[in-house]
Batch of 3 targets.
Target 1
Amino acid sequence: MRPDLPRILLAEALGTLILVLCGIGTGIMGTNLAPALPGLGLLANAIATGLVLYLLITILGPVSGAHLNPAVSLYLAARGAMRWRLVPHHIAAQLVGTALAVPLAHAMFDLDLWQVAQTHRAGGRLMLAEGVATFGLLLTIAGAEAHAPRQLPALVGAWIAAAFWFTASTSFANPAVTLGRVFSDTATGISPADAPGFIAAELLAVPVALVLVAFLFPRAPVQGNLGEGGRNE
């Protein structure tokens, strides 16, 4: 085991916790402050999520790679940026962070700690939107690594903030986030019946991105803030 693996996994868990906390908490706050203006809540959610991604990738990227997303971990392993044997560790840490974030968000707003979401997000158009959102995230990562690695945190934050508005699904783009929102019956929730479709679409975006990115950026190194973290050996 790598001697720095506990530090890497703590960074992944803590980063995912903050990301999920931001998404759910912003949705609750938007509903509380402007219940009649859902668009305003979506705007606040998009801005907050984009900003927190910029922050997390900047401060945690050098530690863990700041994947914060099982789809990103799988994609980076397939591109050779991290060893496959580390992928289950990263994903487990992301899921732990998600599991802690949901009751923490609810506790801050005096809600039941664990809930089951009732918001239905079904249909092929929404699954297509999730595939587009996740593909765009992976494309952004690859393009940033190829041409502007120092701008990667800002570019990822910009993509997600924008995709909140032009995808029909409001851009979950993250299987861990999707799973966490199943247990939050708030504005950002997704019903248990609909979550598998979202997760499948997010994961199917990985092989699509691998094929297209290899064509667009055939010699692009995968380095900088992403990869397996803790500085590659």
Target 2
Amino acid sequence: MSALNLRGTGVALITPFTTEGTLDETALLRLVDHCLAQGVNYFVALGTTAETPTLTAEEKNRILRLLSAHVGSRVPLVAGVGGNNTAEVVEQLKQLDLSGYQAVLSVCPYYNKPTQEGLYQHFLAVAEASPLPVILYNVPGRTASNLSAATTVKLARTHPRIIGIKEASGNLTQIMEIVRDRPEGFLVLSGDDVLTLPLISFGCDGVISVAAQAVPATFCRMVRSALGGDFEMATRLHLKLLTLMDLLFSEGNPAGIKAALHILAIAENVLRLPLVPVSSSLYEKLAEALKSLQHDSG
């Protein structure tokens, strides 16, 4: 089993849109360069944060190709490929242009609420069809189905292409059990920015982060410090980031991060329905939090 080079800070990229609502390629590359310059370890395209359900097949392939051409071999790339129709996910894995990508991130099926056996069979089918290693993505708050620790470990031990999990259940006991029982080399990555530090403290390998694309230097330093065992520094940085992390998700993701990136003049504050921009009061709080972080780091 190969864990590739996906320890540290991965960024779940937004999909920037123009004021007319079309894909903003210039802003996407500006965001990528902003993150690369400040130490981000890898990128995830077409995740939940990318508003993927509202993207056309053409837009998805355009984003994948654009990122692959721009990033090249500088850092690894991961593509989000998931859904609640197993046959459709298998077909996506055949149709999407995954050249230049090192792994796929596949979310638990949502809405249908499968059993553990259904989740197990779904991910076996995905792994069998995937041309790339697979990272499972457990986010019960969005999917209404929780991938248990036992099923995660069973999948990790059954199929060699299943190399890790992004865990966003918020269930620390469950995540500890995965860390305890996982096979060697199996990645356990935080899917909650605010839980990244405690998760690393008991053996997790890093994070796929939303907040890190707004403040990559500080966030990456926090993760590096924790992975290096300097928990005094990591805790200081975590607490410095805490207000921003809370604000970013208080009216949903990616509305918060899109507002933050607009404040930073990286991307427009435009979302596709059914998502809408954050309230003006939250926008002002985000501006204050970002200003405070810039002042502290400056």
Target 3
Amino acid sequence: MIRFENVSLHYDSGPEVLKDISFSLDAGSFYFLTGASGAGKSSLLRLMYLGAKPTSGHVVLFDRKVDELARDELPSLRRRIGVVFQDFHLLDHLSALDNVALPLRIAGGVGENKIGESEIRSYVGELLRWVGLGDHIMAKPSELSGGQQQRIAIARAVINRPRLLLADEPTGNVDDETGYRLMHLFMELNKLGTTVVIATHNRQLIEKMEKPCLHLQHGRLMVH
């Protein structure tokens, strides 16, 4: 699913953020990504969702070497990836329902299944109710708390059952009970075959889930 081959990254003329990183993740695996603030977690995720290119080395996704892809091949590859950003990236002029429905409307359905608009609205509404936002389906992001916006972002990332799900501190703005409920959602998606990588500082969550960790320290990676 993911392979990094001697990958390093720095921005402009700054110091290396990631240093000579090599690892591979099997399809259907579930990993936490840990490390202190500034260790490079967000940068590593950015390389995984094609938001940046490595300074050196190769990133391989879905058996495709990313640096060899033509520009017009990238959008179809990105549609296989669900991303939960730390700052949500919601569209302010859209309702919760329309924010979450966006990936379905772009792709035309769920996974390989093409569905109509009424089915999309029903499917999105069901997921929003599951994450505790059934009473806020038509609310705009500005009308919602940070925790509620985070749940919308998570619903949008998983709505199309992506083959790869990347999440940057997805439980950072919610209470523990909601956090575990969201982790259960990620686990169910993983059982359906989605590869999951979650960056988090929450040691209690990591210990409870008992999943392997990718640990970044000073730009270098350890797997344990």
